[in-house]
Design a protein that fits this description.
The protein is built from 15 helices and 19 strands. It is α/β, with parallel strands linked by helices and 416 residues long.
């Protein structure tokens, strides 16, 4: 075992585990009075969680949400600390306590591999757990995909009902960790819920076990997110009619495929995509949905995190985009120049040489926005990836105020 993993494991058992149980006890084990629905996976967790929340809310359930975007308790949205999807157990248990006090009965929880490894949900029992997908991410912490996937599986092992994506490469490994026979969904193989008749145009339509669905979110990757949400809502007793009505106009989520209006007929978008797979799926959909204009991508990679994914991100963007502005994300204590060079190392040089792809190394993120919008013309798409809903950008140990929407707005003002 890697030395850093040995140290982390010791810390998990000697510090994180007892702390989590202590916090659960301090707040009276509030999760015992809640039906917890856990969603894990590399990409799509937040979208799936929010979709389930909206469906159950429209079904008149007393429902709460704990996700990257924040904690929804009744009419309140409580922020959680930046750069942390699953917060510290003291905050988790405090939120669950508030939910119980507000008579909430069902809570959808976005669960990360870090949180599972560090026992942040110790003392909590999940009624249903679902997984979206697994791909290259967090290998700075887990060191290999087998350990990463195994850690994701801890959620399934402690849940009454598990729902797995049979098309994902993790399926065989995860299916062995489930506490009972998992429910499966698939586009390609025999499964409990079979996805067929996928059609993408201005809308996205498909069928699940011959039940037709249609949504105005025409990103192909939404098929699996919607299917997982549908299975969970069905298991909880929600009606198909409510589900169909909810997805018809896909619920808005800040920082996820968020559009920014402007006077230049530029399709400006904010998205949280920050893994090679998420970038690929997003860019494929955008190329198909907007085939006639240029696809311009603003992105970077976080410092102090998995370095091995950086060239993979560079390759994906150079394979699918027309222009890229490689810029700062949360650099932490790394040099933005070093991070960007690692991204650039993966770029498809053949696409550059054939003039099918151009890239610019722009360390300052606002400068990258300004230059991207100056370049963009009528009908082009400009997407800013990686920061999404976040309200700060971390350089060194300092959190500076940041807004992707404001960055776009500033750039559009300069273009005028």
């Amino acid at each position: 075992m890697h030395i850093s993993r040995m140290f982390q494991k010791a810390k998990n058992y000697l510090w994180h585990l007892p702390k989590s149980y202590l916090m659960a006890a301090r707040y009276g084990f509030p999760s015992k009075k809640l039906t917890l629905i856990g969603i894990t996976g590399t990409d799509g967790k937040t979208t799936t969680c929010n979709l389930i929340y909206e469906v159950l809310n429209n079904s008149k359930y007393k429902v709460g949400l704990l996700s990257t975007i924040g904690a929804k308790i009744g009419d309140k949205l409580l922020p959680i600390p930046p750069h942390m999807t699953s917060p510290d157990p003291s905050l988790i248990q405090s939120i669950f306590r508030q939910m119980v006090d507000q008579k909430i009965t069902h809570v959808i929880v976005e669960v990360t591999a870090h949180a599972l490894d560090q026992f942040r949900f110790a003392g909590c029992h999940f009624t249903i757990a679902g997984i979206t997908n697994t791909s290259h991410e967090h290998l700075d912490y887990f060191h290999d995909m087998t350990k990463y996937i195994e850690t994701k599986g801890k959620l399934l092992a402690s849940s009454d009902i598990s729902i797995l994506n049979r098309d994902d490469e993790s399926f065989l490994q995860l299916s062995k960790q489930c506490s009972s026979t998992p429910i499966t969904y698939s586009q390609k193989q025999s499964a409990d819920f079979s996805i067929t008749n996928i059609k993408v145009a201005d809308n996205l339509s498909f069928s699940v076990n011959k039940i037709p669905f249609k949504t105005n979110s025409n990103y192909l990757y939404q098929v699996n997110n919607i299917t997982l949400a549908y299975i969970i809502c069905q298991k909880l007793g929600s009606k198909d009619k409510v589900f169909k009505e909810t997805i018809a106009n896909f619920p808005f989520m800040k920082g996820r495929r968020e559009t920014v209006d402007n006077d230049f007929n530029i399709n400006a978008l904010i998205d949280f995509a920050h893994t090679p797979q998420a970038l690929e799926q997003t860019l494929i959909s955008l190329k198909r949905n907007h085939p006639h204009g240029k696809l311009i991508v603003i992105f970077g990679a976080t410092g102090g995190r998995d370095q091995t994914k950086r060239p993979l991100m560079g390759k994906v963007v150079s394979d699918y985009a027309d222009v890229a502005y490689i810029t700062a994300d949360d650099t932490r204590n790394e040099s933005v120049s070093d991070i960007n060079q690692q991204i650039i190392a993966g770029i498809n040089q053949q696409r550059v040489d054939s003039k099918k792809f151009r890239y610019f190394d722009i360390p300052n993120r606002q400068d990258a926005f300004n230059q991207a919008i100056q370049l963009a013309q009528d009908g082009d798409t400009v997407i800013a990836c990686g920061k999404g809903h976040e309200t700060t950008i971390l350089h060194g140990t300092t959190e500076y105020p940041w807004s992707e929407r404001l960055a776009f707005t500033t750039a559009f003002k300069l273009k005028k």
